[in-house]
Write a structure and sequence with these properties.
alpha/beta; Gyrase A, domain 2; 4 domains; five-stranded parallel β-sheet; four-stranded antiparallel β-sheet; 22 helices; 50% helix; 12% strand
């Protein structure tokens, strides 16, 4: 109904542009809200107040002109001016039933908006392919997938992307770790570095390389550690691992790519499978290494910054003058040895995003990337790109509890709970819902026992049960040999006069605006809370009213309302990546 009111106002303004010579380029921002007090009608708009300045007129006078120009509509009983210029709309009782007609007509598309022509890229998860996804990554995956799906439902052209960090030091640590485990599998007495990747999966990869390559990559422990500084605690663990990386590259030459690609492809393949099984998909897996292939986009980005006057050479290194855009310090983009930094690659990647024609770019990062936002936005501004076109949403950490014991997670040490283990424990549905039922920027404790419980305290179970309950009602009706059709239900809707029924109709009519608001604010938890409230209202209604009574007309009306609730629950759960079962 909000859309109906907004459309009526828009038609009135168009009429006034003709009859009252209102400017054709008049800025029009029509906002319609539900009133909190029914004494003020059902809906209210402040459009007259927003037009007061450009029209240089009194808001109440403008409101009266709009009211006089409103086209006739049988759903509107009365329109009046309130306060400084609000326009209040009073709807007739029959208009409340329209939502059920709309839900039946639109089905799975109810709540969705038509295409608005805006292109949005959502980049999420983008975990370094150095180990399996853990439960922290899972929250970013669930949140990013929901944001993308909701934006698509709100009419945006959405591109989902995973940025594969397949270059740089961390990947070299991974490749070297695989090689060292390979050497151990060969029988070499290797002391594994404290700063290497120590998970069991690395040892598995090492054995797989041995099975595929034999002794081809074998070098003696003496050769491997020759000239490498001591590891911690006696030495420096960072210099130690860097020394081993250099040894691996020198001793293996071109064959170094065998262990490098083994680690990368095995882990990336595992990540792809894990996300697919979690219901998360992408249009593109963007390779960081592609940025340095011909043409070298990293060098081009640095050159563009230099041409714009925002690169300064200091002691042989190139610095981006990010403090000129509010960053706390300038940033190195190319070291004195000629090697570009991670940040330089990130600048090139973001430039690449906007060159691909996206109107808005949404980055979903872990909470530890908070300090990174200012420098990336600074780089965009220096490249003459509006930094407001980049939206960054931070996903806070997840604390997972097994009983009273909190599990500590570290990818490097290999001591962590994987997303796959969590899914096996509580299931995809509970994992997806629990991840997004709180604001992404709030830390959350994941209650495993609650996620697996079959009670009203478990929100995902409670919502799914409401959906299944409607299916059960329809099965019982069929088993009794009685028939019900949507047409018969729609015809009897005026019989829904109970307060609980009216409340459900209002709640159903709010779904499109809840979905739109959740999408625009990137807040899937708002949609999750709405679905829980709708399910709760339906359970209360079901428990207090007879659905399959002797009065077939009232029964048909109540079944129509119930099936409409079921459809909206299914639509909302689908956007959250949760199934809508027929039986539980």
């Amino acid at each position: 109904m909000k859309d109906t009111v907004a459309d009526l106002i828009n038609q009135a303004v168009q009429n006034l542009r003709t009859s009252q010579d209102w400017p054709a380029d008049l800025p029009l921002n029509i906002q319609v809200e539900r009133t909190r007090d029914k004494a003020h009608g059902d809906f209210a708009s402040n459009v007259a107040m927003t037009l007061a300045k450009p029209l240089r007129s009194n808001p109440r006078a403008i409101a009266q002109q709009i009211i006089d120009a409103l086209p006739a509509d049988d759903t509107v009983v009365k329109v009046e001016i309130a306060g400084p210029g609000f326009i209040n709309f009073f709807m007739n009782e029959a208009s409340a039933y329209r939502v059920v007609h709309d839900i039946f007509a639109q089905g799975d598309n109810f709540g969705r908006q038509s295409a608005n022509g805006k292109k949005v890229q959502v980049e999420f998860v983008s975990a370094n392919p150095t180990g399996p996804l853990h439960v922290g990554h899972g929250r970013g995956a669930a949140y990013g997938a929901c944001v993308a799906d909701m934006l698509e439902a709100a009419g945006y052209d959405v591109w989902r992307e995973y940025y594969v960090n397949d270059a740089g030091r961390q990947m070299d640590i991974l490749g070297t770790s695989v090689w060292l485990r390979y050497l151990q599998a060969c029988g070499e007495q290797i002391t594994f570095p404290s700063n290497g990747y120590q998970g069991n999966y690395i040892a598995d990869y090492g054995r797989e390389v041995l099975a595929a390559e034999g002794d081809k990559l074998r070098r003696s422990a003496a050769e491997v550690f020759a000239g490498v500084c001591a590891d911690a605690p006696e030495g420096d663990k960072e210099k130690h691992i860097d020394g081993l990386i250099n040894q691996a590259k020198q001793l293996l030459g071109d064959d170094y790519q065998i262990v490098f690609e083994k680690g990368l492809n095995a882990i990336l393949g595992d990540i792809r499978q894990d996300l697919a099984e979690f219901g998360v998909s992408y249009q593109e897996w963007f390779s960081e290494r592609s940025l340095t292939q011909s043409p070298d986009q990293v060098e081009q980005a640095i050159a563009q910054l230099q041409a714009n006057g925002y690169i300064e050479e200091r002691d042989g290194a190139l610095w981006f003058l990010s403090t000129q855009f509010g960053d706390d310090k300038d940033r190195v983009v190319k070291r004195e040895n000629g090697q570009c930094t991670y940040f330089a690659s990130d600048i090139a990647y973001h430039l690449n995003k906007f060159q691909r024609g996206f109107d808005t770019v949404i980055n979903i990062w872990g909470a530890d990337h908070h300090g990174y936002i200012a420098r990336v936005k600074a780089a965009l501004q220096a490249l003459n790109i509006d930094p407001e076109r980049l939206v960054v949403r931070l996903v806070q950490f997840v604390s997972l509890f097994r009983g009273d014991q909190q599990v500590q997670m570290s990818t490097r040490s290999g001591s962590f709970v994987t997303l796959r283990e969590l899914r096996d424990d509580v299931g995809n549905d509970a994992a997806r819902f629990f991840y997004i039922m709180r604001k992404a920027d709030q830390a959350t404790d994941f209650d495993l026992e609650l996620a697996k419980s079959e009670s009203k305290d478990n929100p995902v179970y409670y919502i799914q049960y409401a959906h299944a309950r409607v299916a059960s009602i329809l099965r019982k009706l069929a088993e009794s040999g009685e028939a019900w059709t949507r047409e018969s239900g729609l015809a009897q809707l005026p019989l829904l006069t109970e307060d609980a029924e009216k409340a459900l109709l209002v709640k159903l009519s709010r779904y499109p605006e809840v979905l739109s608001g959740s999408a625009e604010q990137f807040e899937p938890h708002t949609l999750a809370h709405y679905l829980r409230e709708l399910a709760g209202d339906f359970h209360t209604y079901y428990n207090a009213h007879k659905m399959l009574g002797e009065d077939s007309q009232l029964r048909d009306a109540r079944l129509a309302l119930s099936v409409a609730v079921q459809q909206v629950l299914r639509n909302g759960l689908h956007l959250l990546g949760v199934t809508a079962p027929e039986e539980m």
